Amino acid sequence: MDQDVTADEGVVRSLSLAQTLLHQWPRGLTRKQLFNRVEQYVTLQRELEQLSGAALERKKEARDKSFTRDKRMLIDIGIPVEETGEGEEIRYRISPQNYGLAPLELTPAEQLALQRAELFSSDRSLGGLGHALWALAASDSAQDAGQGTGGSLTGATLHSAIGTDTEVQRLISLSSLGMGRPVSFEYTSRGRSQPRRRRVVPLGMGIRQHWYLFAHDLDAAGQRIFRLDRIRYSPEKIAARRLNPEEAEVVEAISSGQMYADFDAEAQLNSLDAHYREQAVAEGALRAHTGQPTEHGKLVTATPQNSRLDNQAARTERVINMISLLLARPEGVEPSRLMAQYGISADQLHRDLLSIHQLSTAGFGLGPSVDVQPAPPLTSQEFEQQYLPTDEPITLWMGDDRAQTSLQRPVSLTKPGALSLLITLQALIEYELAAEDHLREAAESLRHKVLEIAPASIAEAAASLVITRPADQRAVADQLQGAIEGRYAVELNYADAAGTESQRVVDPVHLVFHGPFSYLRAWCHRAVGERYFRLDRIGGLTSLTQQHQSEQAAELSRQHGNHTPEVPRTEDSIEVVLRFSPSAAAEAELYRPEKSTTDPDTGARTIQTHFSSQQAVVEVCLRAGGDIELLRPESLRAEIRRRAAEAL
């Protein structure tokens, strides 16, 4: 079978350059020597030998630009490339002592706050968070964190995801580009079938069920609000030359603080109207379910949506940090953990491993050799059908002790990792540590230290983020948190997805934040099993302080990991096919799709999934106001039309 997956040449070239310069410390190498020793540059040199005249000069210029770009990339991700000498005799070198992320010297309380952040985000849903947590963790002293700090290692909250995958990806992209700098993106407003290009200057971001971007719209000449999950592709930077003089003046005024000096993201969040008029919602639902169901493409087995497109700098930063993790873990790291730790797909992991594996020939024996085991296969079929299913730990060995000692230190938190950690710490402070003064102060101190070492654009964006809980859920969450910490039962008045009300006694175990919704994870005495209850559906709550937590609930509380709310299958469950309009396509992931398809022209998404009952399906489609159309079973479309017409 022919090779169909290759290493990333740009990543390999940058890594080979870093590896060679580390190996040649302290003397270093000139540019000419590097061109004759680093394999990827040697290949370019051979191509030069076949050229002459103008073609030769163009190729030389391209080679020199490539070297300058690679060197700058290493510096940008935290690897100091030193230069000594002048002219053609400038020597480049990397000091093993200065390589890697400098330790933050965390206090015991800050170490405990870091561990609470790890527990709070137990499924690593934010891209790069696993790496950032590992990079900051103190290897020895962290094991004793919590001793004498006045805090507890266990928390009441398990955070599954602060925002949908799409929202988090857009959040990271916008933060990397920076606040106050013009960007463009395709945006699908509610009710529209096609996205429209928007050009804006970001002012801040915040979460209130969904993530929102507050920005100055250059075309509308005023402030606008955008939901991140309605941005179709990753935002792009707008070059200064593409702005007219008036727009350039506006951007400068925003950057200098002359415009929007008093901008308050939290006030903007509080002003959001989370509910559309009932009549408009009913009209939208009726319109979507009148006539024949919308046609769609073939449904195929659903895979997690991951539309993040990394540039070469991000890929290089991730791979060099992946090398540090593998070198620091001689027992190996499973492929599944690498994908979770860095928030990447199987395809991207395959390319990353091939890039690392290709370093085995870097330097033609003049640098340290690299050995990856088990070696990644050259075809996607072998990787998916043989390599991944075994999940055998991957080990990395380097034939140079000095280089290995240096390279096993992480070079950065990565941009996604730094932002994810800052978001997690801010959410931890807001959601869980309100009553733990000592730990809250430690988490705030830790967040300040992370801000100091984060890239400037990430630190700036993180400072503009607003994370608050809806006021109507805050009291409920606080009461439930008290029950979790006190280990006693509560009585709920609860309305399920179908609107059916019930009264039940439950033992609260954790609070879970998943996408736009907050849940209580509990042992339900009525269902005799684990259940999730949406906080916004709890109509009444009574604390039963004399009824202690059951043994079943205690066992659940010891089970950490990925606790994503799911609808259990029962004899009343119903299979459905739903179409999510372009503006709501990202929300499809919240309904646990089993099969799906996406319209390549509009971005609308159709999924197959199951609901607990017919009534639950009807209620969801009615509340969506036309953003969700039930395609099958067709018999329920008539019921949705009838209910929507009654509401009008």
UniProtKB/TrEMBL annotation:
Annotated region (Disordered), positions in chain:
546-570
**Domain WYL residues, every copy:** 180-232, 476-542
**InterPro entries hit by this protein:** CBASS_pafABC_assoc_protein (IPR051534), WCX_dom (IPR057727), WYL_dom (IPR026881)
Query: Which portions of this protein are annotated as coiled-coil regions?
Result: none
Domain named WCX is located at 574-648
The protein, known as:
WYL domain-containing protein
